[in-house]
Please model this.
Amino acid sequence: MNESIENYLRIIYVLVEKQSDKSSGIKITDIAKEMDVSKPSVSSMIKKLTDQKYLKSKPYSKVFLTSKGFNEARKITHNHRVIEVFLKDVLNYDMTKVHVEAHRLEHAFSDESIKRLDDFLNNPNLSPFGRFIPHKNDDVVLPEKSTLDNLKMGEFARIVSAPGKGIIRRRLLDMGVVRGARVVIERVAPLGDPIQIKVKGYSLSLRKEEAKKIDVVKE
Amino acid sequence: MTPTNFNIALAGNPNCGKTTLFNNLTGMKQHVGNWPGKTVEKKEGFFYYNNLKINIIDLPGTYSLTAYSMEEIVTRDYIVNESPDIVINIVDASNLERNLYLTVQLIELGANVILALNMNRLANKKEMIIDSKKLSELLGIPIVKIEAIDKTGRDELLSLVMKVYSSKKKTQNKIHYGNELNSHIEQLQRIIDSKIKNETKYLSKWLAIKIIEEDEEIINYVLKEQNGKTILHDASKIRKHLMEVYGDNVDAIFADARYGFVAGAVAECVNRPKVDKVTTTDKIDRIVTNKFLGIPIFLLLMYLMFQITFSAANPLVGLIQYLFGLLSQQVTIILSLLNSPDWLISLFVDSIIGGVGSVIVFLPNIFLLFLMISFLEDSGYLARAAFIMDKLMHQIGLHGKSFIPLILGFGCNVPAVMATRTLDNKRDRLLTILITPFMSCSARLPVYILFVSAFFPSNQGLIVFSLYLLGVVLAITAGLVFKTTVFRGTTSAFVMELPPYRLPTIKGSLIHMWERGKLFIIKAGTIIFLAVLVIWLLSNLPLGVLYASESSIIGIIGKFIAPIFAPLGFGVWQAAVALIFGVVAKEVIVGTFGALFNVGTQGLGVALTAVFTPLSAYSFMVFTLLYTPCIPTLASIKRETASVAWMFFVAAYLAVVAWIISFIVYQGGLLLGFT
Model:
């Protein structure tokens, strides 16, 4: 499969991910906008993808992924995001470069090496940009977003955004509650508040009203 | 080469073993005070190494170096302004990532950093293997492994300090923030270099970082410089650009970048098990913060602490009282033998010995209390206590840690106010101090006992209990009122580390206890001394009057202010004088009544029935509970708030509250048909 097909599939996957109704199809103009190319060149590519049975499309209408297309799109998205994790967490790449570099590498990794990389990274669920990493048999899923106060005891999650504003936000950032940090609820105080979480390898307590403002995605 | 003035500073997170190292290096050769104008503790000391005197300062424990907290500002100002020769950064090896976050900022600041990796044994227990050599290379600073609690690594640390000092090498900032961020920091750094005559001690790179980070203090500093506005303008463009690229605010971008750098270094240098080991701390926490056991265990510990502070200290308190009594007697005898005039005897006995005695008498309580508080704090339990109690305390606008001072207030308000030190946030500390005096301290009990036995012989327990309860109810009310008025709009964060449990060192606890006790004697002692002197003068002037009699100045003042208390049911001058004396120490009210009615403790009850009715007696007890706290408490309030204004505010607002509540009690009682 050539690189540009892969890129188109990944973009379409991302667009589907953004939709609330997964079956409503994708507008060609949206693809053009996302790929930053002209509409005619998108149209010719769409035709090619349709011919190869990755997409269902009619002229001047929305496009839909076939199940073959969906599987391919999911796989390439998975690979891209696993590589992003690797670049950010292990190679300590700059966030601004992570995406571009992953873009370059995703086509080169074999299934085998991606699997090994995935295992090596403990099968992460979240890309450095807070996107969900789809695995085999997953539907198009949005990452299961939640807030820190909603986690169950022992449930692992990753921080999507640092919370609130002002001094509490600053304090939480300094204490390691930063984007991508892995957290787990260790304990709830006897009266039901505050909670104790583990982050960066140590125990931190905070009130539920603060935890409520911290977005996380479950692992 | 022998430097004349060799200064090292200790920096690190709270609970990293910093103070333990400080205590072990200096022993008793230390001095605890406050940073000028701040309520942040300053610990200085010195020790000798190779016949060289080394001054050492224990900087406040901080997690970061922002402008958001006093401790952090104090730390960075000290490092920049005093530029200590070496900054030893103590790092908890078992909690490396968060600790190194501070290290990164110390390097940014331009400190000459040596990293002392502490608690390696604990890290080993967690099966973490740290390659300190590699870590040292990545961070660009020398590292030495120590155990602060014993002597492990101390010689290595000190010889490293000497080596780094004599090599004159400065720490190089090798921190990588990612190319994007790096390039913009450098961009602003160049602008700063070209536009500011940076004669200050700030590194231009640090300035650049702090300006982009929107650090309030530094922005204000730059604004004062020439070209300051243009620099800030350029910075705001950079900030906007960064926020677009990263899709987040600058504070998060920098926190991410620093934690990112640290995470990278830790990933390279530390081998840790995939699944965290269950630690002893986990096991203890499962019990002491258990849903059902947590609160009973907490209450039991509080009860024990209370008992030890006030009961175990009692024999010592009695002894001190006895000794001071003996001293008064002897001095009286000696002075009489020398034919001294009565006023001199009175000055010595009533004023000086009595006054000093009234302070010294608190010492056993204070020493014991601080021994226990330091035990609770150093062991890690205090954080759990706050964790358990926070929900309750938060409802009246307080912090979980406020509970301990409030409980202690039932014993004595002085240590209670001092115990607010355990609160990190200024707002929480102040709010707790403001309501602490509502806790009915043990010095008020003799007054209650005197009155209930005279007026309510069959309901003594109930009446006294009602007073304690009234105090608690008013404390809660006051908390709610302050929360919505004076402290409106401010919130207190409850973002608190729950450190691993540790066995506190005896040495550390003893030093802590001694320093606190000493501070109390000096500070409270001087104020009390002046106060008793003034009261003594007022009681003895004009010359020749009977001590504190109707015709003495204080008697005249008493008569003058007595009408204020008339609506409360006790508009007699003796009550007014007793209340004035009660400000010195509340239990003095009893003795004053004795002197004024010229009866011993036996006949006092009967004498009081002549001027009080049961209702006015109750009103008087309520007033005693609530009005202006004693001078030692006020002195501690001044110390802990670093503000005379707050001290006077407390004195005044409580007097007003007392008057209003007593008024309601008395007039309401009359309406209901009580007498």
